[in-house]
Amino acid sequence: MKVLLSNDDGYFATGIQVLLDKISQHNGQFLGESIESICVIAPDQNRSAASNSLTLSSPLRLQEHSHFAKASAHLDKVKIFGVNGTPTDCVHLGVNGVLGYQPDIVISGINAGANMGDDVIYSGTVAAATEGRFLGKPSIAISLCGDTHFETAAKVLMELCQNRNALPVSNNCVININVPDIPYNELKGVKVTRLGKRHASEPVVQQLDPRGLPIHWIGPAGSAMDATEGTDFEAVETGYVSVTPLMIDLTDYGAIDALNQWNTQ
């Protein structure tokens, strides 16, 4: 098993470092296979909310930072690279040639903050996994709904990935995992969920820069609008790990008949 790790918080972020350390120390089975190598290819700065953007107007550069791996990691099978691009760029490079081999799976995370409901459209974390799926690789995105208990999220992923029966993973969908930010022993279990929905974002924040000119900040995400039973919001709020399968097809099949009728008028 050759594992490609990425994220949108940067190669230096706590979440991806904790996950790298956990996977590299793992001596058991990972989706039914032993781990041969682990490579981190992640942005060289925080690229949260980059969505699925690719960098087409400037060259991409990889710089090795393998010294960032914890001393406890099995360093003989670990490589870490930073890229001056987006999460999608990182996975695209990793799958399409820079490694000299094909990774078997793409894992994005552990993100600092939830990626639930409408978040998945904007999320660079989910986008990295989506790019893996576009390129034919089984892909998982994992997020901690906070910024403290990264060990909890890492342990959850390792347990879910003990074998393919524990977490059926294919190259037909992205598995999106959100973990409550609580100690592992306080988790209530795992729920398979659908995406909830958020209210519209908060208003734009308007300020003046030091020269008195107006500047604008994107407001924070809105609160949950659909957090009913069965959603990712409801699962996390009640102490469960949320596991949501995401498909890429955005077609509104329910509107096809209505559009065909309009088109024949």
Structure description:
By secondary structure, the chain is an alpha/beta fold. It has a single domain, classed as Survival protein SurE-like phosphatase/nucleotidase (Stationary-phase Survival Protein Sure Homolog, Chain: A), CATH 3.40.1210. Helix content is 23%, strand content 25%. The chain has a nine-stranded mixed beta sheet, sandwiched between helices. Strands 9-12 form a two-stranded antiparallel ribbon. Strand 10 and strand 11 (214-217) form a beta hairpin.
- Report the sheet with the most strands, covering strand number, pairing sense and barrel closure: 9 strands, mixed
CATH architecture: 3-Layer(aba) Sandwich
Total beta strand runs = 13
Sequence of secondary-structure elements: EHEEEHEHHEHEEEEEEHEH
β-strand amount: 25-35%
Radius of gyration equals 19 Å
* Low-confidence spans: none
CATH H-tier superfamily:
Survival protein SurE-like phosphatase/nucleotidase
N-to-C CA distance: 55 Å
Helices and strands in order:
Blueprint: E1 2-6, H1 14-25, E2 37-43, E3 62-64, E4 78-83, H2 87-95, E5 105-112, H3 119-122, H4 124-134, E6 139-145, H5 150-160, E7 174-180, E8 189-192, E9 197-198, E10 205-208, E11 214-217, E12 224-226, H6 232-237, E13 240-246, H7 256-263
Parallel strand pairs: 1-2, 1-5, 2-4, 5-6, 6-7, 8-13
Antiparallel strand pairs: 3-4, 7-13, 9-12, 10-11
Helix pairs in contact: 1-5, 2-4
